[in-house]
Amino acid sequence: MHDLTLAQMCHGLARRDFSSTELTRHLLERIGAANPRYNAFITIASETALAQAAAADRRRAAGDAPALCGLPIAHKDIFCTRGLRTSCGSRMLDNFVPPYDATVVERCAAAGAVVLGKTNMDEFAMGSSNETSYYGPVKNPWATDCVPGGSSGGSAAALAARLVPGATASDTGGSIRQPAALCGVTGLKPTYGRVSRWGMIAFASSLDQAGPMARTAEDVALLLQVMAGFDARDSTCLDRPVPDYAATLEQPLAGLRIGVPEEYFGAGLHPGTERAVREALAEFERQGARLVAISLPHSGLAVPAYYVIAPAEASANLSRFDGVRYGHRCADPVDLRDLYMRSREEGFGDEVKRRILIGTYCLSAGYYDAYYNKAQQVRRLIRQDFLDAFANVDLILGPTCPNPAFAFGAKGGDPVAMYLEDIYTIAANLAGLPALSVPCGLVDAKPVGLQIIGNYFDEARMLNAAHRYQLATGWHQLAPPALTETAA
Ligand code: GLN
User: Fold this and answer.
1) Which residues are catalytic?
2) Predicted confidence (pLDDT) at residue 191 exceeds the cutoff of 60
3) How many folded domains does the chain comprise?
4) Pocket probe mutation, ligand 1, options 120, 122, 123, 172, max atoms within 8 Å of Cβ
5) Which domain holds residue 142?
6) What's the pLDDT score for residue 483?
7) Residue range 238-253: mean pLDDT, rounded
8) 242: which DSSP letter?
């Protein structure tokens, strides 16, 4: 049952092959057995999940079956869930039980989804390896000595290990696409403004976007359909109609113009990743798409611009965690200053502190123009590169990450080496563009991803391309060898 995709589970429920209660119980058992090995979940919500499953079964029996009725999913622990602890991977929020649901959580619930639990993540979504979580690292099911990617590593690992068929995640500089690539699953960062961020704990507000992860593009489309749409509570959410993503999934790709940026195939790209991505490009050509060589000349400036803008916004967003209103509070403070200082010192981990320091520095008087303003100007140039490219192409394809999953600790001593893992993902966030990652091969027996970047609000076309690719190839169906061995 756990090998089924969301769409297949949906059919199974509709045909009464199994009930949501049976499905939920089965996956909860798997999570219980496998979570000690992978650490993909921070909180497992067995009791509420079974109650939601029973409610979904009753609803279906009564002839009312909304899109996700009885389908089990997991939420990244960055989304507020009413009555269910929401830690954001931090000691700071270790005891935080939100009094409300994030819009994304609310929409999934209204569509009948069953929430199995909250997935592990880098602390406050800062990281590319899931090593910064207060709850310990997530292990990559493909190689447990390697990272799953971050910051949504828990969602990606849970999908790869067949613990859950669909999950929510968030992407500020690659946190949906990078772990999707490293764990061999499919993940989409929608256009900035497509999905509400209300109730999603803020990291860098001009970059953060919520999005879905699953094993197939078809399932991602199903989840996006429920998640997307206007929400008056998020002032950055756009009021535009949501297309029917499933309706265009199968369209042929003949005539599609695919831009291939020269900057995404330069030094630093693993030759195995390059080979896999080029083979994927050849598959699109076979389906009638046309490859167009393009240039995104300011690509090299994306990582430096991001690592000014993201920490600057993070330093402002994280100032609310002071031990007074909510969050961790130190024991026996001698005065207010001591309370602020020790609560923040104890509540935040090293990477979060590093970002607060960098961000506060970049925003301080005298440095603001030199760093923050300059980075915003660079951001504008990066966006212009994409606008120029999309004048001639429909989609832009390239690698999601330069390398397959790396070993724990491999980049621990060198934050810049870690930041460079996001070299191909960050530009889409700076420009606000939608981008998705699909599995496109194995390198050193570990998955790598193909990145598909689209124009604003062109998610339907991206999902169409990803789905057609998945109909013709089997990379998204591969399971980590450890799973198939135990099943055999
Ligand atoms: N890896 C990037 C960072 O550490 C992006 C993280 C994210 O998208 N949340 O900031």
Assistant:
1) 76, 151, 175
2) yes
3) 1
4) 172
5) 6-260+391-487
6) 86
7) 98
8) P
